[in-house]
Write a structure and sequence with these properties.
single chain, mainly beta, outer membrane lipoprotein receptor (LolB), chain A, two-stranded antiparallel sheet, 17 strands
């Protein structure tokens, strides 16, 4: 959402009246290995997969970005591990902003300003100065914390005792991220606050209301606050009851007269 306004732009060289698909840099490949202490953390804060079912959410967002504020109906569809599709449509069901997140890419289309942005998570990390990736964002949106648990295990953080209700840890020496903080309430233990802080920015997620669906806890009310160089955004998300269904990702099409945004440093 923070990509929709106030950025420099340049026009693509493709001819008019054609649909263009920008070529993205290939992401680095990584190998995921099993972490021996992860099962204990999963019992504390883990969640079950939805048995290969997709998740659909309908609701309303109150959106604040720099000097802009508005409320809008929003639709979101998620296929775990594959993609997140978000459509913002404030008036008469007409879409104004579309976001498509994949493990290797990020897409944003703003129809009123005829702008778009596409790139890798690494490029977005560099622009926002925050160590974001697809798994972290999906975990945050669905109140699942697999990537957070991996970070706790890799950082060799001991399981909290019964008197604790918060902890902070550093993600890694090679990360641009300074630290992660999480807070939880009384049993049954559920994380109600999750934040990351870097030297130049921070991102905070608060889970205000949850619902249980197939042994998993999904947020029905949550907030997301971003503070990064040139970007200050706040989203208050109110969702109706989640629906599990087989969904398809709509095609990503960018008209040739749209300008590509250039994210500042």
């Amino acid at each position: 959402m923070a990509l929709a306004y106030g950025c420099q732009s340049r026009r693509p060289s493709a001819p008019r009246n054609q649909t263009i698909t920008p070529v993205l840099p290939q992401p680095e490949t990584t190998t995921t290995t099993a972490l021996p202490q992860a099962s204990a953390w999963n019992r504390l804060w883990g969640r079950y997969d939805f048995k290969n079912k997709d998740v659909k959410l309908e609701g309303t967002w109150n959106i604040s970005y720099n000097q802009y504020e508005f409320a809008s109906p929003v639709s979101m569809m998620v296929r775990q591990g594959s993609w997140i599709w978000v459509s913002v449509r404030p008036a008469l069901g007409i879409e104004v902003i579309r976001l498509v997140l994949k493990p290797d890419s990020v897409w944003m289309v703003s129809r009123p300003s005829k702008n778009y942005w596409s790139g890798t998570w690494g490029q977005l990390q560099k622009a926002l100065q925050l160590d974001l990736d697809y798994r972290w964002f999906e975990d945050a949106i669905l109140h699942g914390h697999g990537s957070l648990i991996e970070g706790l295990v890799q950082a060799q953080i001991a399981l909290p005792n019964n008197s604790m209700d918060s902890l902070s840890f550093k993600k890694g020496r090679d990360s641009t991220l300074a630290s992660v903080t999480l807070r939880w309430g009384k049993f049954p233990y559920q994380i109600h606050h999750l934040s990351m802080q870097s030297q130049r920015g921070n991102l905070a997620v608060d889970y205000l209301q949850n619902t249980s669906l197939e042994s998993a806890s999904l947020p029905t009310k949550m907030s997301l606050a971003l503070n990064a160089p040139g970007h200050r955004a706040f989203l208050l998300m109110n969702w109706k009851a989640p629906v599990l269904d087989a969904l398809s990702l709509p095609a990503i099409k960018i008209p040739s007269d749209y300008r590509k945004l250039k994210l500042g440093s």
